[in-house]
Amino acid sequence: MEPLVDRISDYLVQMDIDPEPTEEGIFLVRYGSAVVMISTFTHEGQDYVRLAAVLLLGFRPKLELLTRLLRLNSHVLMGSFQLFEDETLCFTHTLVAKGLDLATFRHALLYVGRVADDHDEALQALGGGERMEEILDAPT
User: Do residues 50 and 38 make contact, with C-beta atoms less than 8 angstroms apart?
Assistant: First the structure.
């Protein structure tokens, strides 16, 4: 898995992004008001790269919000909106690591970030919660 993490780090450097991973080995990339988390994992002997943009924390899943998410999932080119039990809303896409090149990685990363950034405010208006921008920019 280490060569894959190194390859992602190299891709981020080529994109002029500081590739400093967290202690868990997750890279964080800010895109507008969203943050894309880049992680790696292995499943059934195959390596993957997951791009997950957190849109909202602590949202309230109302019918209008859920309907909107289903409609949005039918329009996105890749990836999907996902709801988690801890009241987190994300937009994620997973890439197969084998043969992953810079162009594909860049396109997927920018797309995930753009979708999250384009929709987080409207989804917040429907379901509440806090956007990543609000959490990151809050005084400590």
Answer: yes
The burial of 72, by beta-carbon neighbours within 10 Å (0-12 exposed, 13-18 middle, 19 or more buried), is given as middle
Dihedrals phi, psi of 84, to nearest 5 degrees: -115, 155
Beta-carbon contacts of 14 under 8 Å, excluding residues fewer than 6 positions away, are 102
CA 127 to centroid of chain Cα atoms: 19
Determine the average pLDDT of the residues in 42-50.
96
pLDDT at 41 over 90: yes
**What is the DSSP-derived secondary structure letter of residue 138?**
S
**For position 1, what pLDDT does the model report?**
59
Residue 137: CA count within 13 A, CB half-sphere: 10
Query: 3-class DSSP state for residue 62?
Result: coil
